[in-house]
């Protein structure tokens, strides 16, 4: 069964500093992996996704993530944090099931990113 | 752009009331989902539907039911609301994307308080 672990429920960085949000997954089949962002009082928005095409995935707002099969990781990074990056971030893995044409996502518990001046 | 809308942003109901949460998507997606989001627990799947009138239980279906009479609309029903159902409820939809990845598109959420 698939699962996702996000290390650190809260991360705090200074504006301009590197952002690193950690995600480890467990999957018995080659996974699809996603990072979503949730701003206060909003739904989730897709940041980026890994679909086995390239191990380094670039997303919106300057974020990127690298798939490392040997480490079962998909960490999210951004070279320079901006105040507007303050939000909650969720890593997710697909269940891989395609019966009936659906594909469920398994979400991590989330990491709240704070950016201070 | 895909748009997923939810009928209410905030809702306050009393214990024992029947509660309806409505979700509509405008991109002809086959799949629709209902999640609840609680601090420290991430998103937990309540029910999902992969076709009209089709539904399957997710991880936490107890106390909930769903209805999908039209492809674009997916309703979550709390038959008799209880205080432990106070939560943020998120609706999502999906369809095969690039490489069949089925990324999900989310609505803005409904914050339900049961008193």
Description:
- The complex is a heterodimer of chains A (117) and B (115).
- Chain A has no helices and 11 strands.
- With 117 residues, chain A is mostly beta strands.
- In chain A, the strands form 2 sheets. In chain A, strands 2, 4, 5, 9, 10 and 11 form a 6-stranded mixed sheet that branches. Chain A has a 5-stranded antiparallel sheet with strand order 1-3-8-7-6, with no helix packed on it.
- In chain A, strand 4 and strand 5 form a beta hairpin.
- Chain A is globular, with a radius of gyration of 14 Å.
- The termini of chain A are far apart.
- The mean pLDDT of chain A is 90.
- Chain B is an all-beta fold and 115 residues long.
- Helices cover 0% and strands 57% of the residues of chain B.
- Chain B is built from no helices and 11 strands.
- In chain B, the strands form 2 sheets. In chain B, strands 2, 4, 5, 6, 9, 10 and 11 form a 7-stranded mixed sheet that branches. A 4-stranded antiparallel sheet of chain B has the order 1-3-8-7, with no helix packed on it.
- In chain B, strand 5 and strand 6 form a beta hairpin.
- Chain B is globular, with a radius of gyration of 14 Å.
- The mean pLDDT of chain B is 92.
- The chains are: A mainly beta (117), B mainly beta (115).
- At the A-B interface, strand 5 of A face strand 5, strand 9 and strand 10 of B.
List keywords for this structure.
heterodimer; A: 117 residues; mainly beta; 6-stranded mixed sheet; 5-stranded antiparallel sheet; 11 strands; B: 115 residues; 7-stranded mixed sheet; 4-stranded antiparallel sheet; 0% helix; globular
């Amino acid at each position: 069964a698939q699962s996702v672990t996000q290390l650190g429920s809260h991360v705090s960085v200074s504006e301009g500093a590197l952002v690193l949000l950690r995600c480890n997954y467990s999957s018995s089949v080659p996974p699809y992996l996603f990072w979503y962002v949730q701003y206060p009082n909003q739904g989730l928005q897709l940041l980026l996704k890994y679909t086995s095409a390239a191990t380094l995935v670039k997303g919106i707002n300057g974020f990127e993530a690298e798939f490392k099969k040997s480490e079962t990781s998909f960490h999210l990074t951004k070279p320079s944090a901006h105040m507007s990056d303050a939000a909650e971030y969720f890593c997710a893995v697909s269940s891989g099931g395609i019966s009936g044409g659906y594909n469920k996502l398994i979400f991590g518990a989330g990491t709240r990113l704070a950016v201070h001046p | 752009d895909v748009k997923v809308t939810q009928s209410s942003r905030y809702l306050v109901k009393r214990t024992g009331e029947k509660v309806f949460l409505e979700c509509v998507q405008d991109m002809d997606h086959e799949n629709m989902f209902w999640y609840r989001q609680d601090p420290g627990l991430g998103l937990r799947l309540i029910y999902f539907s992969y076709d009209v009138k089709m539904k399957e239980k997710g991880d936490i279906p107890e106390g909930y039911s769903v209805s999908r009479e039209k492809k674009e609309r997916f309703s979550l029903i709390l038959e008799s609301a209880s205080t432990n159902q106070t939560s943020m409820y998120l609706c999502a939809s999906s369809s095969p994307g690039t490489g069949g990845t089925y990324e999900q598109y989310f609505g803005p959420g409904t914050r339900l308080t049961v008193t």
